[in-house]
Design a protein that fits this description.
The structure is a homohexamer of 138-residue chains.
Chain A (H helix, E strand, L loop, with lengths): L2 E14 L8 H8 L8 E14 L10 H16 L2 E2 L14 H12 L8 E10 L2 E5 L3
């Protein structure tokens, strides 16, 4: 049974800033540069969700992409889109919303929801067209 | 003398929200939807600056692109990149930072700075890959 | 009052073939090449809808993009997406679904629906990333 | 000897539908949604062919890309481009042309043709810019 | 009869440098920066050829795109692709190969070849994804 | 501690040709085709640098992207951008500048410079949007 990876790309727009609350403005600016701007900045994020698994003999699907899109939208993107990642998202509380931390938090939330035998294989999170992160759960 | 249009694409990332201060939260949410989120959201903006004019016989240039890039960076993008468009930009004070209003404000600021015989011909401002505005000064 | 152009990009996937019913297979193949394949072929189309008009002083909008998206989806794309352009679309009956004919038919259907003072300004219809058409109603 | 992966991107346009002949229309529509439209729909597919192997000391090539392009065109794409994947392709007979099944069939056909020491390493097949599959032969 | 614009995107890769032979190295470096490197540099160029005209009632075409592609390839791109724009192209002799000069020279060569009633409407020449020029023959 | 991969995309433009000095023109043309043009040709290259490692608990970073960009620019791209890869680059001397050889040379130069615990994980070098290579140091 061939093991195929399928990917759905989705997107959201959000505000954030990078700063540690226990550091003063000067130190945050020194470490995080413009990303520490206290009045926030923001991005259009692209999220590429890759699910792997055997191809179902009846449908030819690893997983129905409409189900995957619905799952990511209702459990992840409805919380992130047009929101402030530092302030508005309960499951990011206390997390510095760097792209690295964000992709790990999305993984932990999404991986248990993929119906077996399919499995979450990889997440790619693009903060700009010139900068992205990947995570595979390890 | 042929009249050629040259374009340089640049980019910035910023936070904003759409809301009128004299309206209450409910009315802002009704008119502007998720864009009214009081904790802001943000975008990666692409700005395409088109300058038109005769081709210089010596250099083969309408305008030196390094000069154009420097001009847009120092007079426009340094004020917008990694900033909050509602709060941090003196020349946007009192303006609802819709893409339409933003492109007009950039035009008014940039057009007088292009050295003749070149002239600012068109601005394209992309808020997402699926939504953009154009303005030609009229 | 500045006149700004706003564009929303949408997409649909459809099957079609290029052939005149009164011509035989050989003539259709001669004129239209592989596009005449009697068992159809298909494309992912991108449609870029540009609306122009004055910027509303209260909202900063030329037109609410959510309204524009809803209009194009319900009146145009619901009829075209995952359909056969030669067979399934009443308002394309008798039309050879070349990209040129398709963009004109979409214009005629969409232009009267844009609420003044906004107006439909331009349509770009991309059949592949290497081939597209534009129409402005003239 | 370094082992490098080289990739060539190619494209084709085709019609298809997703449906099991032994199911009635209602069940096909329930399982496959709009993809079951009996009059077909279609896509612009992008195929990215990745070949891996040692770099030849004389040419600096893993494999001549012109040879790879010729091979994929004559053995794969000439059969798929401007065709109906359910009807026109002998080596897809009896296969539901989901993206998953299609990538596996292309792999089985293409892998034995890559001249050693190069080897087919990965195929990426994009059905839309928002949805793609990957297969590595396992 | 609607007047539609159709565009075909093509591409070529070439070497060039920007320098005036009557200027010394220092002056060329001062005016043209890194583009004056005496050992050349190069680009992947994208050329978008827009032809406008009435839609033929029989074919639904402004112009057969295969004919347009063939024309641009044989009369323009075969001379430019994998060539040195300063040295290898008879019809660029004595021209500083800035993007502006290049687009004008392509226009002058291509415009008379478009079969009426179609006409060459616009050329867009992209030197990088961040820099392009447009010319409409005036 | 999650192990995340971060990628920064950068770009440069360069001239090159593919040819072995000990072969005559005819043999070089036979093996390398148009790429052997003695007057050079050129490309816009995209370089995607992937660094992997644990996420720092204080900053949320695998590695500061500004540092990575600075490193790649000063140690790699300043030598390649607007240069001739066959002539101008000391660390490519004697190397046929195929994309495969180029990515390996960049790896060997860049890998020792990544500050632990981060490590260079993958390089993707795109010569055109239709052709790229990957290397992971093995």
């Amino acid at each position: 049974m061939p093991d195929v990876r399928i990917t759905r790309r989705l997107h959201f727009s959000a505000a954030h800033r990078l700063a540690r609350p226990e550091w003063d403005e000067e130190k945050n600016r020194h470490v995080f540069g413009d990303c520490a701007n206290p009045n926030w900045h923001g991005h259009n994020y692209d999220l590429e969700v890759t699910v792997a698994g055997p191809v179902d003999a009846e449908t030819g699907y690893v997983m129905d992409l409409k189900d995957l899109k619905e799952l990511v939208n209702t459990r992840i993107l409805d919380d992130l889109d047009h929101r402030n990642l530092n302030v508005d998202v309960p499951w990011l509380e206390g997390v510095i919303p760097s792209t690295e931390n964000l992709v790990v938090c999305i993984w932990e939330r999404l991986a248990p929801l993929i119906p077996p035998p399919a499995r979450l294989e990889k997440l790619v999170l693009r903060e700009t067209p010139r900068h992205w992160v990947e995570y595979s759960g390890e």
